[in-house]
Amino acid sequence: MEAHTTPFATLGLSEALLTAISALGYKDPTPIQQQAIPAVLFGKDVLGIADTGSGKTLSYALPILQHLQEEKWTVQNRHVPVLVLVPTRELAVQVEMVFNEVSAGLPERVKTMAVFGGVSINPQMIGMQGVQVLIATPGRLLDLIDSKAVHLGEVKMLVLDEADTMLNLGFKEEMNKLLALMPRKRQNLLFSATLSNAVNDITQVVLHKPEVIQVTTDPQEVTLIQQRAFRVPHERKGPFLRYLIQSHAMQQVLVFTASSHSADHVADKLVKNGIHAKATHGKKSNHARQQALAEFKAGKIRVLVTTDLLSRGIDIEFLPYVINYELPRSPKDYIHRIGRTGRADRPGEAFTIVTPEDQPHFKVIQKKMGQWLTLESTDDVDLQGV
């Protein structure tokens, strides 16, 4: 068989993995993949600071799959050798998909399973037999441990993915409980979009002499995203949102609101005005969230209305439009929102609706980003019949 000459081949990956990722269309490794893959293969602990959408899942999935193929760890049934902790159901499903896609092309299939709350625990308990890579949200994993469905006493590799979000969502206590159940000798990989004090604290506890890799995009360098902001009186927000969608002939747009209630309200108003829309947020069932996202990705839903909780879990490669119907509380969340578009070297547009009451907060967001947008007047826009 002809040896692979792709840039991935310089990172120390096996021929089987190179063939598998080539068949999936991966050509050039991203910066985080270039640096993390060799370090993980070498057995080092890794602290990776990288934006959502930077390719970090593959940067740990590939070397983990190689370790599983080469080491052939023998562990007792229901004792998982690889554990990936994630903050949300959406990310759990996404990570599971990456592992399954790549391992499908390997000589030996790797049994991977994602577990999370909001669905029945019984199928997860039954499915835990022989799992080699377990992707889990902390709360549901503790439930499964309490039920004796899974044990962490033989974990060889631990990944904390989006550690900043896990800590922001209040998972620190659960994470500490889980860490106490694992063997001290293991390889640890921690990935985060930011290096906050909380992340730094957990890093001190989890990582041993880590390779530190920092590949974050400076907000000023988000050049593929064309941003526009509009000053809109509160009572004209709904009609102006519909005007934006119709005047730009948007066929796939992600709309962000500040709360679950608001997401439902905005989606209902769009539907009443003949625009096919759905809301997805933390208060929806897991099935409803997955179905809405799948339909949106497939182009069956024109507008998906969501909240900041899902701004990191939604990964759509070629999303052309994002609209901030309401501002987020944090400038970081604003960056994550608009970062859903302008990915994979494709341009995207991000529109923000700013009421007079929002203007002081929007100034704070812009100052943090180091980018200033002209606030465009909408007084002359005719919204009659929209």
Question: What's the SSE blueprint?
Answer:
Elements: H1 15-23, H2 31-41, E1 46-50, H3 56-71, E2 82-85, H4 89-103, E3 112-115, H5 122-127, E4 133-136, H6 138-146, E5 157-160, H7 163-168, H8 172-180, E6 187-192, H9 197-206, E7 211-215, E8 225-231, H10 237-247, E9 253-256, H11 260-272, E10 277-279, H12 286-297, E11 303-306, E12 321-324, H13 331-338, E13 348-354, H14 359-369, E14 375-377
Parallel strand pairs: 1-6, 1-7, 2-4, 2-5, 3-4, 5-6, 8-13, 8-14, 9-11, 9-12, 10-11, 12-13
What can you see in these coordinates?
It is a single chain. With 386 residues, the protein is of the alpha/beta class. The chain folds into two domains: 209 residues, P-loop containing nucleotide triphosphate hydrolases (Rossmann fold, 3-Layer(aba) Sandwich), CATH 3.40.50; 158 residues, P-loop containing nucleotide triphosphate hydrolases (Rossmann fold). The protein is built from 14 helices and 14 strands. It has a seven-stranded parallel β-sheet, with helices on both faces. Helix 5 links the parallel strand 3 and strand 4. Helix 2 runs parallel beside helix 3, helix 3 packs across helix 4 and helix 13 packs across helix 14. It is elongated. The model has no long low-confidence stretch (mean pLDDT 87).
